Amino acid sequence: MQITSSKPLHFSASPFTFESPKLSSMAATLILHRVSPLPLLRHHRPSPSLTINLPLRSPPSTTPLPRISMSYRSAVPATDRLISTASYALPFFNSLHYGRFLFTRLPILATALNPILPLIAAYRSIPYAAFVAFFALYLGVVRNPQFSRYVRFNAMQAVVLDVLLALPSLIQRVFGVPTRGVGFQVLEIGYSSLFVFSSVCFVYGLISCVLGKTPYLPFVAAAADRQL
């Protein structure tokens, strides 16, 4: 096949150089396509955007919640406090003889009892005052439903404590009283311990009842609660 052209082709000394302007532009385009490392740019259509409407959460409420308060124990009347306080005087007065050794060794303890000496003297001047006070407290207060549970519980604690403090005296009457040796030392320690225990229970019950609180005496509260 023979190609004829009206214009003769002229090649220059350098490669890929043509005298014809059309051929020169075509050759340059081919060379750029082969040499350029960048791929041909394609026109991409933008992908449609996806919109999701999420429901907005309402902010947490800052309204303060009402506080619930409950009073489990109402105020104790003054009469109930007075009767409960007087109940603990029974075991304390009946246990004063246990402090004879402490009063001898520590005279200041006897001086501390001077404010209540008139009451002690009046209590001991009544014949069988201990028995009368015991049954009056048990039958007139503990078993009387007209009194509140607060008064009855404190009176029952005083009754139980009085019974416990009377047991050593009953044992002493059966086995006798040692006068010397180790037996006498044990008797002295036992008497002093019983008096200290009785005094602590009296002071604790007295302060608690004055403040309108319920005292719980050790070894006594559980037994008193079961009797009510």
Automatic annotation (TrEMBL):
<feature type="transmembrane region" description="Helical">
    <location>
        <begin position="191"/>
        <end position="211"/>
    </location>
</feature>
<keyword id="KW-1001">Plastid inner membrane</keyword>
<comment type="function">
    <text>Involved in protein precursor import into chloroplasts.</text>
</comment>
<keyword id="KW-1133">Transmembrane helix</keyword>
<protein>
    <recommendedName>
        <fullName>Protein TIC 20</fullName>
    </recommendedName>
</protein>
<keyword id="KW-0472">Membrane</keyword>
<comment type="similarity">
    <text>Belongs to the Tic20 family.</text>
</comment>
<keyword id="KW-0812">Transmembrane</keyword>
<dbReference type="Pfam" id="PF16166">
    <property type="entry name" value="TIC20"/>
</dbReference>
<feature type="transmembrane region" description="Helical">
    <location>
        <begin position="126"/>
        <end position="142"/>
    </location>
</feature>
<dbReference type="InterPro" id="IPR005691">
    <property type="entry name" value="Tic20"/>
</dbReference>
<keyword id="KW-0150">Chloroplast</keyword>
<dbReference type="GO" id="GO:0009706">
    <property type="term" value="C:chloroplast inner membrane"/>
</dbReference>
<feature type="transmembrane region" description="Helical">
    <location>
        <begin position="154"/>
        <end position="171"/>
    </location>
</feature>
<keyword id="KW-0934">Plastid</keyword>
